[in-house]
Amino acid sequence: MALPGFLRRERIVARPGFNRWLIPPAALAVHLCIGQAYATSVYKAALVEDFGTSQTAIGIVFSIAIVMLGLSAALFGTWVDRNGPRAAMFTSACFWVSGFLVGGLGIETGQLWLLYLGYGVLGGIGLGIGYISPVSTLIKWFPDRPGLATGMAIMGFGGGALIASPLSRQLMSYYDPAYDGTAGTVPNGDAVAALFFTLGAVYLVFMMFGAFIVRVPAEGWRPDGFDPSTVKQKALVTTESVSAKNAVKTPQFWLLWTVLFCNVTAGIGILEQASPMIQDFFRTGDSSTVAATAAAGFVGVLSLFNMAGRFAWSTTSDFIGRKPIYMVYLGGGLVLYVLLATVGSSATWLFVLLAAVIISFYGGGFATIPAYLRDLFGTYQVGAIHGRLLTAWSAAGVAGPLIVNSVLDTQGEPGSLVAANYRPALFIMVGLLAVGFVANLLVRPVASKWHEPHSDAATTPTPARSAAR
Amino acid sequence: MSTSVSKDPTPNGQQPVHTPAALIAFAWTLVGVPLAYGLYQTIKTASTLFTG
Question: Which residue spans traverse the membrane (chain B) (predicted)?
């Protein structure tokens, strides 16, 4: 199907003199919106009560969305690379906003299947396309600092939850004055539906803003003072191109898939259980020394480190290299997990510190992977390759909670668990991180047989590109 | 954040553009303000870990 003219890639090629610092806010405008996916717990209890159903039945909405994220990123990645970021952001906004509208209608009419279809399926497709939409564009605008560039965008995904959680509470208390946002009070279904409609409208404006300011660099453009020949000198960094179709046939792709899967599964292990976990670690008898409000504060600390890690670690990877930084995420994470399991219950501050650094590695792993892909496969179809790799996130989104919940189920009833009951699950995560560490160690440059053939048009830089820094 | 701008057309005939600083500032403000709100609210919640 032909795209309308205003969405086409050729319409958004930046003219000489364009300032590339307009691109990160375009990317953030999308990622800050779709990051709402991590704030669904705010209205989960309200939906359980409104639909008169189980936690699992409502939790499935989020699971569908994450599975659809991975599938749509994998399926539409090549389309995104071919048609450019404006078409991708526009399409993502349409799906994401439709998800809220259809989901809100489902809540308003009491039809759970509409919530699954809306937020889960349509919203999930919007998530997948939106997540990968600015990544390859940022890498092309910032060939000198790809980690910084993708870190900024993917930090926005973490930031989206920080915004959506308090904003949702405030909006729901506005729509339902009986709800004040404190523990024990739950907004009614109408308030959640109104929240969905409001968020849909706000996100539409923000995402469209991003779509209309985004630009792609002209062929052969490079920033002032950037010498592509210096890139060649770094280990594991290629100036060749590998197509998405060929990338999935290389061992490097599957090694990075394993790395991402292990890193995300291990992080979800803590994120999924953060609030009950800190209370259980400091439980004596029936009571815990960590109150419910302090546990909520712990979740806030983790959110901050999750977001900060995305930017800080990904930026650091520009200086120390992608492979070494994943050795830190996976090897360092492994050591921290062992410490958490063995001495984590000795002091609250130690527990919080260990968990916070682990979660910063989790965020860093997400944010650094596009730059790692760029290093190994080139910029040619990096968006599509990234999309295919995100199936690891979907798989981890299922595996992480499954591992933790099934292990904890064998240990006792919720509310009676102590630190020792978490050790089997934590040591499984240690094992996973060890697997990821080895997978990262095995990463080598991609064999030349997978490189795209050179053509004069592709290799001859366009002269006299102006540059913006 | 400086921008290299030439008044002469490039060899392929395109006139250089100058991205207005106000547009860049507006774009960063539009994403920065909600992010700052989210950060403030989260830090407020996180502080209960140490005070509550």
Answer: 20-40
